[in-house]
Amino acid sequence: MEWRDHGILLSTRRHGENSAIIDVFTETHGRHAGVVRGGAGRRMAPVLQPGAQLDLTWRARLEEHLGSYEAELLRSRAAAALSGRLALAGLNAVTALLGFCLPEREPHPALYRRSENLLDLLENAELWPLAYLRWELALLEELGFGLDFTACAVTGRTRGLEFVSPKSGRAVSREGAGDWADRLLPLPPVMLGEGAAEDAEIAQALRTTGYFLETHLAPSLGSRPLPEARGRFADLLSRRS
To answer: Could you say which architecture CATH assigns to the domain 79-149+187-240?
Structure first.
């Protein structure tokens, strides 16, 4: 068995004396692990950095085997990640969530392209927070937990949407919320593509997406909690606002 693909490096762990097992989100083969011979050595250290864009060749005797990778660096994001605390926290959040959420060897080409484009914005501190929010919404959609802001779940109206139902993920208007408003999640205008994308509003929106990541998506994957890296990024953005 052999294939070649592009991928984003999610994580690396040592394997034996000089090798490494890498977990990669590939464009056409999904999240896929494999062994890199010499991956724990000095020569490969600059290549096997989280977020790196890699040209990968995977080989195994049988498809179900772990297999081995040959990896060549297409684009390093190490310098971009070190451009600021928010960039590093954001990179860690993206790679951790992808490693946590994605099933092994299941293709998600649209999410892959979106993730690649997001990571290419790492050095742009102004665009990154909004791009990250939109990426989390796309992640929820891709994995079957998409939020619906098209109309109020109660009245059917498309204007005055201010809340999100924590059960259905559908938008609710002020009128439709009534006495239940304090039990609903906020729907800031930035989630509707309206108004200026201020950090405070994006941080509020991430509290809403975080609720669905934690209480809807994570339980569907077992008993593991969300990666701490996601919470650290959201907290850092909240403090910056």
So the answer is: Up-down Bundle (1.20)
The alpha helices in the chain, defined as continuous H runs, are: 78-81, 85-101, 109-119, 128-142, 174-177, 199-212, 218-220, 228-240
Read off the pLDDT of residues 27-61 as tens digits, 9 standing for 90 and up. 999 999 999 999 999 999 999 999 999 999 999 99
Q: Which of 27, 30, 53, 200 is nearest to 130 (CA)?
A: 200
Per-residue pLDDT, 240: 82
Residue ranges per domain, the chain? 2-76, 79-149+187-240
Please classify residue 8 by burial: count the beta carbons closer than 10 Å to its beta carbon, then call 0-12 exposed, 13-18 middle and 19+ buried.
buried
pTM for this entry: 0.95
For tokens 């979106």, the residue is: 114
**Longest C-alpha distance within the chain, in Å?**
64
- Rounded-to-integer distance, Cα 94 and Cα 92, Å: 6
Rounded to the nearest 10 degrees, the angle between the axes of helix 85-101 and helix 228-240 is 150
The answer to whether the CB of 32 falls within 8 A of the CB of 68 is no
Question: Per the CATH hierarchy, to which homologous superfamily does domain 2-76 belong?
Answer: Nucleic acid-binding proteins (2.40.50.140)
Q: Find tokens 């239940």 and name the residue.
A: 180
